[in-house]
Amino acid sequence: MDLQTQLRQVSQTTLPQIQQTNDLKQLNQIRVSVLGKKGSITAILRGMRDLDPQERPQVGSLANKVRDEITAAIEHQRMVIEQQAMNAALAAEKIDVTLPARPLKRGVPHVINQILDDLEDLFIGMGYQVVDGYEVEDERHNFEMLNIPKNHPARDMQDTFYVKDDILLRTHMSPDEARELEAHDFSKGPLKMISPGRVYRRDTDDATHSHQFFQMEGQVIDKNITMADLKGTLEYAIHHIFGTDRQIRFRPSYFPFTEPSVEVDISCFNCDGKGCPVCKYSGWIEVLGAGMTHPNVLQAAGVDTDVYGGFAFGLGIDRFAMLKYGITDIRDFYLNDVRFLHQFKGGII
Ligand code: PHE
C-alpha cells in the first residue's frame, strides 16, 4: 500500500475514533498512537526517505494535512470533553441563590430609654431645656446646696458610694437643679429644665430596689409660680404616660429641698380607684415626689427669693416603666435579657 493510501486510511479510522471518545485519557492515547514518536503518521513520514524525490512533496503535504486535521480534531474533542465535565460539575454543585436569607434581628431601644425619650419630648414641647449633669458629684451639689447639711438625717435615706470624702455617685438628679440655679441668668427669662439620668444609692437589690436606677427631675423658677402650675404640669405628664383617665392627688410629705412638699399619687389604673392588690387596696398609687423649691436652696445658689420662686419634681423612670407595663422586678431592666427587652417595641417596629 502506498504512503498516500496509508495516510488516508489513518485519517479515516482516526477521525471517527476521536469524535467518539469522551475521555481525556483515551484521547491522549489516540494522539500518542498517531502523532507520537512511535505513532502511525510518524512511521509513515519516516517511510518518505525511500520515496522518489518527485513524489515527496505530494506525500509530504498530504501528511501535513492529515496531521493538522487530526491535531485539530483532538483539540476540538478535548474542548468538548472539558465543557461536558464543566457542565456536569456546575449542575452537581448548583447553589440555590433563591433560598431566603436568615432574617436580621432588629434591636429595640431599652424600655427605660423609651420612657426617657418620651418624657423629654413632652417637656421640650412645654419649653423646658434638657440638662446633662455628672454621675460623679460633689457633696456640695448633691446635699449641701439642697438644704441637706452634714449630719442631716435625710442623708441616711440617700447613703451612696463615695469616691473620696466629699466626692460621691449622685443619689438623685437634684444636683443638676442646683448647678442650673447657680448658672442661670434670670434677666434672660425663667429657668425651665429637666434632668434625666442614672442615680445611685446604697440599697440592697431586690424586686423593687436597685443600687442604681433612673430618675428625671424637673424645675421651673420664675416670678409668680404657684402650686397650681406644679399640679397642672404633673397632671399633663401623668396623663401622657398613664392615660387621661387617671386622676392625681397631692399628699403632704417632706423633702429637705422643697416646702411645702408632696407625694403625688395617681388613681389606680388596675381597679380605677376601687381597691385591688396593685394599689394595696387604697385606690391610689404613689408615683413621684414634688414641692415648691425651698428658699434655702434658691439662696444657696444666689437667687433673690423676694422675686423668684418655683417648683421641682422628681420621678423614677424605672418605677414609671414598672407601673406602665406591669413589670414586677426592677432587676429585669439591668439583666439585658433580650427576651425581656424585645417585648417593648414601643413606637418602632
Ligand atoms: N430628689 C428627690 C429624690 O430623689 C425627688 C424630688 C425631687 C422630690 C424634687 C421633690 C422635688 O427622692
Keywords:
alpha+beta; 12 helices; 41% helix; rod-shaped; binds phenylalanine; ATP binding; EC 6.1.1.20; Phe-tRNA_ligase_II_N; aa-tRNA-synth_II
Question: What features would you describe in this structure?
Answer:
With 349 residues, the chain is an alpha+beta fold. The two termini are 91 Å apart. The longest helix is centred in the N-terminal third of the chain and has 37 residues, at 56-92. The protein has helices spanning 3-20, 24-35, 40-47, 56-92, 111-125, 139-142, 154-157, 174-183, 227-242, 295-300, 317-325, 338-341; strands spanning 129-130, 136-138, 162-164, 167-169, 191-200, 212-222, 248-255, 258-267, 284-293, 309-316. Strand 7 (248-255) and strand 8 (258-267) form a beta hairpin. The chain contains twelve helices and ten strands. Residues 172, 174, 217, 255, 258, 289-291, 312-314 line the site of phenylalanine (PHE).
Summarize the SSE layout with pairings:
Layout: H1 3-20, H2 24-35, H3 40-47, H4 56-92, H5 111-125, E1 129-130, E2 136-138, H6 139-142, H7 154-157, E3 162-164, E4 167-169, H8 174-183, E5 191-200, E6 212-222, H9 227-242, E7 248-255, E8 258-267, E9 284-293, H10 295-300, E10 309-316, H11 317-325, H12 338-341
Parallel strand pairs: 1-5
Antiparallel strand pairs: 2-4, 3-4, 5-6, 6-10, 7-8, 8-9, 9-10
Helix pairs in contact: 1-3, 1-4, 2-4, 5-11
The structure holds phenylalanine (PHE).
What overall form do the CA principal axes indicate? rod-shaped
- Supply the number of helical segments: 12
Overall mean pLDDT: 93
How many whole angstroms does the radius of gyration measure?
A: 46 Å
Give the distinct bound molecules: phenylalanine
Q: Mind describing the biggest β-sheet?
A: 7 strands, mixed
What pattern of helices and strands is seen along the backbone? Answer: HHHHHEEHHEEHEEHEEEHEHH
> Low-confidence stretches at least 5 residues in length (pLDDT < 50)?
none
Termini distance? 91 Å
Number of distinct beta strands: 10
Helix content: 40-55%
Strand order of the largest sheet: 1-5-6-10-9-8-7
Provide the structure class. Answer: alpha+beta
Strand content: 15-25%
GO cellular component, one term: cytoplasm
Domain Aminoacyl-transfer RNA synthetases class-II family profile: 190-323
Family: Belongs to the class-II aminoacyl-tRNA synthetase family. Phe-tRNA synthetase alpha subunit type 1 subfamily.
Subunit structure: Tetramer of two alpha and two beta subunits.
